[in-house]
Amino acid sequence: MSSMTLLDWAILVGKCVITTLIMLQIAPIMAWVERRGSALMQNRLGPNRIGPFGLLQSLCDGVKFIFKEDPVPGHVNAFYYVLAPLVSLVPAFMTFAVIPWAAPLELGDRTITFQVANLNVGLLYIFAIASLGVYGIIMAGWASNNKYSLLGSLRSSCQMISYELSMGLSVVGILMVFSSVNLTDIALAQGQTLLQLGPVAIPKWGFFVQPLGFLIFCTAAFAETNRLPFDLPEGESEIVAGYHLEYGSMKFAVFMMAEYVNMFTASGLMATLYFGGFQLLPGMSQLHEAIGGGAGIMAALQAASFFAKVAFFMWFFVWVRWTLPRFRYDQLMDLGWKVMLPLSLLNIFLTGALMYAKVI
Asked: Is 150 inside a domain boundary?
């Protein structure tokens, strides 16, 4: 393997900085979207005093979190209590590193990839790192030395382990169809045409070849990110605030940031696996031709298309939160083991049958 030049290191550092800055903005932006979105659905105003449309409210909240007193309760295990938020946040930041924003760009003899790490096993890497996030929640519940926190962390661990199985099996169909675990290869393969209906071309997006797999993956993503209707670890009607009951100030903000970053990664993964990833949205190809742009403009349009898809799924998380009520815990586990798991296995068999019949 050839050694990296100074320019290669500069590009890598630049991609790391850009990705980190994007993810740092997710929490304040989504906090505003959740407030305004819920207000819109419930015919309220939401935050509207600080800045236009209340846009600066999240900035003020961030300043408050930073400067608010942050004592460590005397009954907790101090070391693990402080470490737990970081154990939740770091895997959340690491998982997005392998998701591509745009197709590789050829500049002379150099190929620039629009992701921090272009791993051949990118999908496996995401599942491996994402599974580490549960340790932060378990650590927070145990170190808090509080029965409600411990119950919340136990609920979360059971929930994440149960739905990780269905989530992992749901993407097997995608791997069978596209024959790769490299996310860039999967996104590029979705640029093909699945069906031509007169002037309308149906792309070979994962959603069209794996609709059942997408439904299972999307449902499991809600459970993995502890979002409604799967937010049982934070069930205030039974266990108050769950695993972060003893947390406040910036430590609580870190847990909140980890949840939003996990939502961002899940949205990016759904867009990449099932909606073409960086493949252009309808009308963008004509826009590129009208502009007469080159490879750089195409990369910018691909990045815009990818982040537009991610933004839709981020809004979808908020939409579902204010649409569906929370499950009971027995309903949550029954859905995971008695419905999602059999459906994910059925999806694998159906995919194999359709591939054998050369339908997909």
From this structure: yes
What is the number of domains present in the chain?
1
Burial 347-360 (b: 16+ CB within 10 A, else e): bbeebeebeeeeee
- Quick check: is 95 in a domain? yes
Cross-strand pairs, 195? 202
- Output the pLDDT for position 347: 94
Residue range 243-276, pLDDT digits in tens: 777 888 888 888 888 889 999 999 999 999 999 8
Question: Which residues constitute the domain of residue 230?
Answer: 77-356
Would 104 be classed as within a structural domain? yes
Assigned domain for 274 exists? yes
**How much of the chain exceeds pLDDT 90, in percent?**
26
Amino acid making up residue 167: M
